[in-house]
Amino acid sequence: MVSTQSYWQFCPVAMAAEIVCTRWTPLILRELVSGSTRFSDLHRGLPRISPTLLSKRLKQLEEAGVIRRLASPNNETVEYQLTPAGEELKTVVFDLGIWGQRWIETRSSLKNLDPSLLMWDMRRNLDPTPMPPRRYVIQIVYPELTPGRRHWWLIVEGKATDLCNVDPGFDVDLYVSTDLHTMTAIWMGVSTVEAELRSGRLQVTGDDRVRSTMQQWLGLSPFAAEKKRVPSPAVAGQPDTR
């Protein structure tokens, strides 16, 4: 595929950049690499992209041979899957994330707070292993947000995790109350559950087993384990950047 904004260079870096470095494309690849295959799930992970632009970028990736579009016989459902060429981009996407985690100063990323995106990522990466084999309901509340963005429920049953922003009607096993900045910092690996409990910015009540293993089951960023190589004012104990 030749981009309309071609660099007109034969260098493989330039040719690859024409495909994977257009606006939103790296993030679409991030969602595909993370396991999203349906349009609705891709858009849920990228809430600020318009459906029209998402469709355009998916078509461009399909034309480039990076993804394939698979429709059901009646065309009621459509999935997008990585081709072998797309699979090879997994390491590129992951390495880009590692670089960003190591070298981008934390205050920049912690300005971009979005509860729906954060909760979707938490749901996708949640590890139910520490939980007993029954249904568990975790309610997370961000008191400073407007009512429609304040309450979230994670429903964990076996290896499946569902996310609701409307009360599902189940008894809640664990209540979590914190501000969005604090939860985002935990998710990014900038802070920890223990540190935020000590600070008082995080309050957790309910089932003792689920509460004590929160750091283990909480769906952190896949890059959270990477250590910062630039100073990070958002680390617990340093000045608050809110």
What do these coordinates show?
The chain is built from 13 helices and 7 strands. By secondary structure, it is of the alpha+beta class. The protein has 2 domains: 12-103, Winged helix-like DNA-binding domain superfamily/Winged helix DNA-binding domain (Arc Repressor Mutant, subunit A, Orthogonal Bundle); 107-217, Nonspecific Lipid-transfer Protein, Chain A (2-Layer Sandwich), CATH 3.30.1050. A 5-stranded mixed sheet has the order 5-4-3-6-7. Helix 2 (25-33) crosses helix 6. The N and C termini lie far apart (44 Å).
Largest sheet composition: 5 strands, mixed
Spatial gap, N to C terminus: 44 Å
* Domain count: 2
Number of helices: 13
Order of helices and strands: HHHHEEHHHHEHEEEHHEHH
Helices and strands, with pairings:
Elements: H1 12-20, H2 25-33, H3 39-45, H4 51-63, E1 67-71, E2 78-82, H5 84-87, H6 89-103, H7 106-109, H8 115-125, E3 136-141, H9 147-150, E4 151-157, E5 160-164, E6 174-178, H10 180-188, H11 193-199, E7 202-206, H12 208-212, H13 214-217
Parallel strand pairs: 3-6
Antiparallel strand pairs: 1-2, 3-4, 4-5, 6-7
Helix pairs in contact: 2-6
